[in-house]
Amino acid sequence: MNRLENKVAIITGGARGMGAQTSRLFVQEGAKVIIADVLESEGQALARELGDCACFHRLDVSDEVNWQELVEKAMDRFGRIDVLVNNAAVLVYGAIDELSKRDFERTVSVNLVGTFLGIRAVASIMKMQQAGAIVNISSVDGLRGVNALAAYVSTKWGVRGLTKVAALELGHHGVRVNSVHPGGVDTIMGNPTGAPREEINKHFQNVPMQRVGSPEEIARATLFLASDEASYCNGSELAVDGGLAAGAYYLGLPGAPL
Ligand code: NAD
Q1: What is the pLDDT along the chain (258 residues), one digit of tens a residue?
Q2: Helix (H) or strand (E) holding 177
Q3: Per-domain residue ranges for the chain?
Q4: Is 152 a catalytic residue?
Q5: C or N: which end of the chain has fewer Cβ atoms within 10 Å?
Q6: CA 203/CA 208 separation, integer angstroms
Q7: Ligand 1 residue neighbourhood (C-beta within 6 Å)
Q8: What is the enclosing helix (H) or strand (E) of 36?
Q9: Which residues, including other chains, have CB under 8 Å from residue 205's CB and lie 6 or more apart?
Q10: Ligand 1 mean position to 110 CA, how many Å?
Q11: Mutate to test the pocket of ligand 1, among 189, 209, 237 (most ligand atoms within 8 A of CB)
């Protein structure tokens, strides 16, 4: 409890899925949370659920003016910004030779440009404060290649790279920047048909933990990196993926699952 006491946090894509769970956990831990998302009714409903410690702000992460308005609102209301979680993202499936330029660019615009704009929007404030933590939600797909996800994978590698640059540029101003790399997680993005956990887990037999992750499990890792407990973590990448990025099994050889 109280691991984020008196801290002001912005969580993009905070209206549902992992972002919503992160918003709930941050409020439990004492933060004031700005839920920033394009989904207005979901975001407003979550803010009502969380009470006085949360508010909703409509933000399209790919829009510079939206970011400026959000940061001005946060500073007017709270006078500081301690944490930014760049969590908003979209995912589009398609083989490279089927993927449209439009879909590729839209994915880059939300996932990568959105993360850049977020870092840029809070950087001068956090530098002035000589304190702050930025957590960029990448993916296990920012650590490896995956078929059918050219746009998504490219952006998640980009987010990982951007994290390193921001860690270098902001670290000596007291601002830490780290990335989280979730594996498969049971949200609308990870489980669009809403299949029951036992069903989805059948598709995770190549993962050492042999199951899908829950939004709470990712939120806890984000909480750690956002909190002062991670005071010496900067530019690091935390895989929260049940071991998926650790390697691949040679089925039939010792040590593989039965
Ligand atoms: P989700 O689709 O449930 O939530 C994504 C949120 O981002 C939504 O609330 C959506 O409205 C918001 N969003 C989309 N475009 C936006 C924009 N332009 N501006 C503002 N908000 C926007 O997905 P999720 O699973 O909760 O994903 C959260 C993060 O975790 C994403 O960065 C995703 O890439 C990453 N991730 C997810 C998985 C998974 O299996 N679910 C795995 C690895 C990484």
Answers
A1: 799 999 999 999 999 999 999 999 999 999 999 999 999 999 999 999 999 999 999 999 999 999 999 999 999 999 999 999 999 999 999 999 999 999 999 999 999 999 999 999 999 999 999 999 999 999 999 999 999 999 999 999 999 999 999 999 999 999 999 999 999 999 999 999 999 999 999 999 999 999 999 999 999 999 999 999 999 999 999 999 999 999 999 999 999 997
A2: strand 175-182
A3: 8-244
A4: yes
A5: C
A6: 12
A7: 12-13, 15-19, 37-39, 59-62, 87-90, 110, 137, 139, 182, 184-185, 187-190
A8: strand 32-37
A9: 257
A10: 10
A11: 189
Residue type, 97: D
Residues in the chain: 258
Read off the amino acid at residue 107. T
Q: Structure tokens of 145?
A: 């290649």
Q: Which pair of tokens denotes residue 161?
A: 């790279």
33's tokens:
């949370």
